[in-house]
Known about the structure:
Elements: H1 6-26, H2 43-65, H3 68-76, H4 78-90, H5 96-112, H6 121-148, H7 152-174, H8 186-212, H9 215-237, H10 243-304
Helix pairs in contact: 1-7, 1-8, 2-6, 2-7, 4-6, 4-9, 5-10, 6-8, 6-9, 8-9, 9-10
Amino acid sequence: AEFGFPAYLCLNGFVATYIGTEIMRWFSLVEPIKQQTPSLSDPNFSLLVVVVGLSKTLNNASLKNNSMGFYQIFKLLVTPLVVLLEYGLDGKMISFQRGLWLGWVCVFVWLSVQGDLEFSVLGTMWAAIWIPFAGLYKVQWARVRKMYGCSTLSLMHAVMPYAIALQLVIAPLMDPPGIRDYHWTPEALVLISLSGLAAFFVTFSGFLVVGNIGPLAHTLLGPMKTAVAMVGAYMLYEANYSTVQLLAAAGALFSLVIYTHVTILERDQHLQPQYHQVGSSLSPTNKQFHSETEDIELELGHKTGIRAAGTDHKVEHGHTHAS
């Protein structure tokens, strides 16, 4: 039978994720957080626990109560929200070129999902609640990881116990009754266990992208997956998409490539002055080193009668006579 309890399924993913990080800690693959142990007394860590604990459940509720096209349009709103949050919390700004191509990504994805739009009041309500959590979820993870100077696995291991406790509280409120009466067949147990294992890898890879590359990059993975899925389904399975949808999906992929190219160019241009600064700061030292080496050669030449390289001084040997 279908497992119609998305909040409990999310809880299953959290538990599997924590077990996975704990196993990796046993094998010394999870480094301890050196600065200080995260606790709920830290407002930033507490906020992270809340958004991690609620974001996925709200996402499932939005997906359940909206058509796929409408859900994708709501996901597009997370992108400008991430830009605003990074600017408001950390003062980060994106260039005009990056913003332009980011806008084209959103426009093309919006055009590509036009064939599956079905408005729902309940779905819109859940999506409106989920969007702020989704944006803050990505931005806050990157901020807290930077604050504690820790690895992705270390922060996952610290966050998950609190997120599990929060999920235990909200799951009975979010899901319909009947979890105890569900027919737990061996097949269902295997599938739910595999779902938890997949959740661990998806969560780990997602947090890696957010922590090591950035929240905006993780946000753009959603539109990219949508566009790739549409083009792939049409090419491999001859899925029924309109010409406008296919062109829009291809346009979204093209815009993502250009956006990535512009981002890499801007990063290299930002790092280039630093390299020049390092080189210029080393130049006087190198000059002083060569100057001091030359002086030593001259001094040795005067004492030993050997001609120093690069000089015009000549030193003659003295003569000794035996008595």
